Amino acid sequence: MCETFDVQENPTITAAEIARLAGVGRAAVSNWRKRHADFPAPVGGTTASPEFDLIQVEQWLRTQGKLPELATADRLWRHLAAASDSPAAGLAAVGALLLARQRGSRRGHPDAQLAPLLPDVDALADELSPQGAFDELWQRFSAPGPGRPFATPDDLADLMIGLAGVGGGSVLDPAAGSGAILRAAVRAGSTSVYGQELDEDLARLAGLWLALHDVPGEVCPGDSLRADAFAGRAVDAVVCHPPFGATNWGDEELGHDPRWIVGTTPRTEPELAWAQHALAHLRVGGHAVLLMPPTVASRRAGKRIRGELLRRGHLRAVIALPPGVAAPHGVPLHLWVLRRAAADAPPPARALLIDAAGGDLADTAPRVLAAWRAFAAAPDADVEEAGFARAVPVIELLDEEVDLTPARRQPAVGGEASGEHLVRTRERLAAIVGELPALLPQVTPAPDGPDGLFLTVGELAKTGALQLIGPVRAGTSTPASGGPPVLTVPDVLAGVEASGRVDDRFGQEIFLAVGDVVVPMIARQLIPRVVTADGALLGRNLYLLRPNPAALDPWFLAGQLRTSANEKQASSLSGTMRFDIRRAQVRRLSLDEQRAHGDAFRRLDAFESAIRQAASLGAELAQLTADGLARGSIRPDSPR
């Protein structure tokens, strides 16, 4: 276990750190440098930000009587933090020495640069035991500081473990960081814990903590999504604070991964990939708890996955937390509680939404746990605490947005709470508006001007580049109870999932597949949509264009069809709003160029969806403000 780490020959310290070391202001350090000729000279840094030899500075401060007496743990940690570019690597090296001592094994020959610290390591281990010494250093490592990542706070980790109902079972954290959640699992009585962490130094640290505390389990370094270290292992609970907003998480190479048990995860929804990864590692009946950014509950790209998680009974609760409970501290995060449902079990009728964003975590955590446990004991009960918790019928959640934001599903609670609702609506609007620049595709003028090489949809169909089906006409059929949903013209115009049902006027059954493009035959605008989920039926008065993937990219095709020029080209007569899609024109581009354009069209579609959400929230915010001002539940800020 003894591994080396890079320690500088002469650890350095800045003027600001000298001030903290001596308990004075920076001006005092500047005065010492001017007034005392024997003050150590800089050994590095710049003129504006010099660095000094730590040992020389300590000796000078001690001689001058300006160095407070430090405990062994403080002195050892200060040297570790100053001597290593990576405090995690430094602490891991010391932890390996402490583990060797605890196990009574020879610790070998540590790195020569570590040797000066050995007397303090031994003294601290003699004083507190190897385990206690590591815990003391761990506390200092966990405090915010340069080179130290934000760890999940203990109170939040305890809440997450409590929601998972760990008991004496096994726990996995696939994004373990320095092990905060694993330590919470041990506190709750877990008998074996497992973790994986991309940062090798943090993975070593978390594994050392387990070893020093004699906890069965292991923490492996590596990327959990791309290289799952625990493939095939099912545990009692998965609890995780995954990375947020990752843009390169492996969606292309993992497109058909068996972990995607409710469907392929969209590229722009990495957090939902973590949710499916967690489900894949649960035994049937086990729970997963994930910390999520609030936009995951409402982003359009993720509504298909959210819907499937609800339909199959996997998503059981979404809990809005107060702002500041974890990094990023300015964002009011959510907790998602999932349960691995049996494949043949009927899905529960309700899901629990808790809005605890308005309080302090220390006060609301017991209430959140009580609400969740009451709901878990009776999942079909009609639970409702005005302004806080509601067991919402799943059918109500499966609307056109599948928006799981708890505040939007709570019943009104009067004037006082409407002010809180207003604040949360404003925060959600600000979050969506803040995402707009990143959604809008980056484009540049074409150097050679417009390209005039086009083929009509009819010509593409003749060449085999696509298959043109429909529109389906009214017919006669015998409705099947509980049959597949039907994609209707209103669904396409609104950009929502299939909501229709087979009726006695339904004609030919044509099942839709991912990558199909559908276009209404009659509408005010020519609006194509790309199908993103299998299984629905093509509704009446819809064209179905099924591209040959070797010749045509679906998002490129949809983007080409939506132009104002095609709206004129494909309309039967001006103003009739009836389209003959065969006449629409599509540019001739190579498949690689199509994919690049298709990605831009896909981002544009997400941008337009966000604009619609912002408009809806803006209108809601204006109404809430007007109502609150008129009722007297809110008032204008006093003019300055």
From TrEMBL:
GO molecular function: DNA binding; N-methyltransferase activity
Residue span, DNA methylase adenine-specific domain: 150-363
Alphabetical UniProt keywords: Methyltransferase, Transferase
Pfam family, one: N6_Mtase
Ranges annotated as spanning the membrane: none
CDD domains: AdoMet_MTases
Cross-referenced InterPro entries: DNA_methylase_A-5, SAM-dependent_MTases_sf, Type-I_RE_MTase_Subunit
SUPFAM superfamilies for this protein: DNA methylase specificity domain (SSF116734), S-adenosyl-L-methionine-dependent methyltransferases (SSF53335)
GO annotation, biological process: methylation
Top-rank lineage group of the source organism: Bacteria
Protein name: N-6 DNA Methylase
